[in-house]
Design brief:
alpha+beta; Immunoglobulin-like; six-stranded antiparallel beta sheet; five-stranded mixed beta sheet
């Protein structure tokens, strides 16, 4: 059966290596491997049932907040790592369709990706332990392990397990067909001192023979020194040849720009991607290349990783028109494509009018927001704000006061306009009514921006004149930034 390579493999050694000295001494009553497994289980449970999980752990308010943040970060990391692994598998399949196993280079890439997952998990546990005294850490660890142990007793794991990464990296790693191997129930070392791989030292003689045989089947030569399959023909058929074609993995293919310096929106908004992180796997020094879309992005490289952000000056005119490759030892990868987006225009929608006994009327003017590719942002929640660029001008003897600027988070832009309070003192002139009196009371120049709750911050999409009448609110003299 063909299976997709699962993502959840634990590294005991990485856990011991990265855990801070303070946490080591405070957690001596708990086996490191069991502790990491327990925290991983608790993180997942917190994502499924946060209230119940936190109650079972008996944490105080501050500890609950720390734990919940770590659990959220853990789930995001799992998704990112799984996407990276899927990319490696799918590209390996595309480049070597004639083989029935993952190539050696793909297996090495996946082991490296697993290592980054384990390091991230360990850091999250370490962050929870920070600023806690030894007694609190011990109590928290014991509560997490008890929760995990109870679950193991009541619900034995089912399905196909990865017993250890040796099995997962030899003949049982078969081609992807959508079936996901479940996580392992046992821990094992994957990372050697200094951060390098220690895969070879774990193999028994029989396992080395199996690797050797598989390598020969793929037309390669097996190096017993580091248990790596090298291509003897030089055409990459074995996946780990002298100059293998590098592979790029990344977290996203879409990149957003909401204004200079804006790297996140409010907690209620969709988590738009303000940067894309790419990782290169292969032999040699990574040289990153922007093949197309140079004006749309900024690429910052750091060895085998590259961080991509929007330039803010130019944006995609077609899907995937930004193309990035990496060259290692003279071999160039397949391109990683990115589409850059920005809010671009406001499309006028409905004007809802209602009577209101306190304000005379209550109007809502709606706009749909599109990006530069005409994609509607109505599938997202985004921040937007209005800015009055001048003082209000009262006309026709009006004594109306000034309404506030009101930002919001929503799937479209809404401007809620009312009259002034009908019971105000002095008596309003003109008196707000539901209908029948179109006397203008006041107006002001107004700007609309998307990407922030701060007035004047974000991407400017429209300028108009907000006018309040005795019986309605209106947007007049609308000037879009983009037609």
């Amino acid at each position: 059966m063909l299976r997709r390579f699962g993502m959840a493999v634990v590294s005991t050694f990485a856990f011991m290596l990265l855990l801070s000295p303070e946490c080591k001494s405070q957690s001596t009553n708990q086996d490191a491997a069991t502790l990491l497994q327990a925290y991983r289980y608790a993180f997942r449970q917190a994502g499924i049932s946060p209230t119940g999980t936190l109650q079972n752990l008996n944490l105080n308010t501050e500890q609950q907040a720390q734990f919940q943040q770590a659990a959220s970060d853990y789930m995001l990391t799992q998704t990112r790592i799984q996407n990276q692994i899927n990319t490696v598998i799918e590209r390996d399949w595309a480049s070597h369709p004639q083989t029935t196993h993952l190539t050696a280079l793909a297996r090495a890439s996946i082991r490296t990706i697993f290592g980054s997952l384990t390091r991230n998990e360990t850091v999250l546990v370490d962050l929870i332990h920070q600023n806690l005294d030894a007694t609190t850490v011990r109590q928290m660890d014991e509560a997490v392990v008890a929760l995990y142990s109870n679950e193991k007793q009541n619900s034995p794991p089912s399905g196909t397990l990865i017993a250890n990464h040796r099995t997962a990296s030899t003949r049982s790693i078969l081609r992807f067909n959508g079936t996901i191997l479940q996580e392992s129930g046992s821990a094992h070392p994957m990372v050697a001192p200094g951060g390098g791989g220690n895969y070879c030292s774990e193999l028994t003689a029989d396992e080395e023979d199996a690797e050797d045989e598989e390598c020969a089947d793929e037309g390669g030569e097996y190096d017993l020194e580091n248990c790596t399959c090298y291509d003897s023909s030089g055409d990459g058929g074995g996946g780990g040849g002298g100059d293998p074609t590098p592979i790029i993995t990344g977290d996203y293919h879409d990149l957003w720009y909401f204004g200079n310096g804006i790297t996140q929106q409010s907690k209620g908004a969709t988590a738009f991607m303000y940067k894309v992180t790419l990782t290169a796997y292969g032999d040699g020094t990574a040289v990153w290349n922007i093949v197309s879309g140079q004006n749309e992005i900024t690429l910052t490289s750091n060895g085998n990783t590259a961080t991509i952000t929007s330039s803010g000056n130019s944006f995609s005119s077609n899907v995937g028109d930004v193309s990035i490759t990496v060259t290692m030892n003279g071999q160039t990868s397949s391109p990683w494509t990115i589409t850059t987006h920005t809010p671009y225009r406001m499309i006028a929608g409905t004007h809802d009018h209602a009577c209101d006994s306190s304000w005379g009327y209550s109007d809502v003017i709606h706009y749909t927001v599109q990006d530069q590719l005409n994609n509607s942002l109505s599938i997202y929640l985004f921040d937007f704000n209005e800015l009055f660029t001048t003082a209000f001008t009262n006309v026709n003897g009006s004594n109306w006061g000034t309404p506030p600027q009101e930002p919001a988070t929503n799937s479209d832009i809404e401007d809620h306009i009312t009259g002034v309070g009908v019971n105000n003192s002095p008596t309003p002139v003109p008196m707000p009514v539901c209908s029948g009196n179109d006397t203008e009371a006041q107006y002001v120049t107004q700007q609309w921006r998307v990407g922030s709750l701060t007035a004047g911050s974000g991407v400017l999409l429209q300028t108009d004149q907000l006018a309040r009448y005795a019986d309605k609110g209106m947007h007049n003299n609308i000037v879009p930034v983009h037609q």
